[in-house]
Amino acid sequence: MTDASDALQYHKNFPCGKISVVPTKPCDDARDLSLAYTPGVAKPCLEIKEKPETVWDYTSKGNFVAVVSDGTAVLGLGNIGPEAGLPVMEGKAVLFKRFADIDAIGICLGKVFNEKGRTDPARLIAAVETHEPSVGGINLDDIGSPACFEVEATLKRRMGIPVFHDDQHGTAIISMAAIKNALKILGKKLENCRFAVSGAGAAGVSCCEFYIKAGARRENFLMCDSKGVIHKGRTDLNEQKARFAADTPARTLADAVRGADIFLGFSAPGCLTAEMVATMAENPVIFAMANPTPEIFPDVALAAGAAVVGTGRSDFPNQINNVLGFPGIFRGALDVRACDINDAMKLAASDALAELAELPIPPEIRAKLALAYPEDAKNGMFDKSGIRADYVIPKPFDERVVPHVARRVAEAAIATGVARIAIRDFDAYEKSVVERIARNSAAVSR
């Protein structure tokens, strides 16, 4: 675990925070100044006024993402407010740049709350949509449920740039890739699997909806919130939960997991016990994604009979980490100037991650992974090829992840008609993303 004092010092070291602005053009003499600002800047201004689409040519909009939150559902910390959520949004901006060479800025919005201190969807929507002229995409983050569903859906309708709520879709995309490979190992089919789900917030609901789009059956889900199983007899369900109301006598999480093939945790530390795991179907899959303490620790789950286990943590195998998703998804979307990130693009991103885990790891990638994950390297994880119980999803520091995800996302965007730019040679495109990220990494490390 990270030491608290180290984390505080990391953020406080001068300059404070984690991001800064670096110009992409020189400003070293009078001529440069005249081009960067007055009088030269008037030329692109007038060009954009006459031809609005040239904003993509003369500004940084095409490689710029706003990471937006109101601080009402920050990590596992809850409703801590926009100021307290800002370090997370800055961190997201760091990951965008480090992994995908996308410029991003964290924007935490205040005065968008109702009298109870929760998100007022109309106020948040009105604030976010004003940013469309300046950025190429919106990454929503850490916005409380159920308001987050209305906020994202409305912004996607109103804005002509990609809008993506990472809490909903990032975890869904990555965990679906891991489930796909786990079931391949175990010889099970997604459409036949029974799911027990702990947690019915943005991540829990959206993950399950995404699995259904991928082929799972809605009737095979038993979802639990803080009051127990979501069943048809309950009268306290919002629209999103009501879609998972089951006709079942099950009332507790222990009831829900009995006979289940897959457990998904988006809830509370330690809520899944070894005794519960022992009642699940043969060779169950467990993704306990509560952070920093999972619903069950991997060693306990494996000892109780689990076949494949994943968590949200980097110190255990099969980390379900959103950094595997959003950098490559936005890289692909921005590069084809997509107006949306649709279901086909999300499914393509998930397939890309599943594909990559099955491929042999080249020696040069293996060497870098060994530096990033010394314990895994010592255990021989990167010496083998293909998927295994402890390797159903690639590692975040695998440099092939973003280029491959970006390629599949760009392909899907073009195929579904939401791209404004065509790519003719996808092999060449994927290679260009590899080279771009390598150049950026070299520049950052200097």
List keywords for this structure.
446 residues, alpha/beta, 4-stranded parallel beta sheet, 10 strands, 9% strand
Tell me the β content: 5-15%
Query: Helical percent range?
Result: 40-55%
Encode the helix/strand succession as letters. HHHHEHEHEHEHEHEEHHEHEHEHHHHHH
Total helical segments: 19
Going across the biggest sheet, name each strand in turn: 7-6-5-8-9-10
Report how far the terminal alpha carbons are from each other. 28 Å
What is the typical, i.e. mean, pLDDT? 94
Extract low-pLDDT stretches. none
What characteristic shape results from the CA principal axes? globular
Q: How would you sum up the major sheet? A: 6 strands, mixed
Tell me the total number of β-strands: 10
Radius of gyration: 22 Å
Q: Which quaternary structure do these chains form?
A: single chain
Structural class: alpha/beta
Describe this structure in words.
With 446 residues, this protein is α/β, with parallel strands linked by helices. The protein is built from 19 helices and 10 strands. The strands form 2 sheets. A 6-stranded mixed sheet has the order 7-6-5-8-9-10. The protein has a 4-stranded parallel sheet with strand order 2-1-3-4, with helices on both faces. β9 (285-288), α13 (298-303) and β10 (308-311) form a beta-alpha-beta unit. α5 crosses α19, α8 crosses α9 (202-214) and α14 (326-335) packs across α18 (401-415). The longest helix is centred in the middle third of the chain and has 21 residues, at 166-186. The protein starts with a helix and ends with a helix.
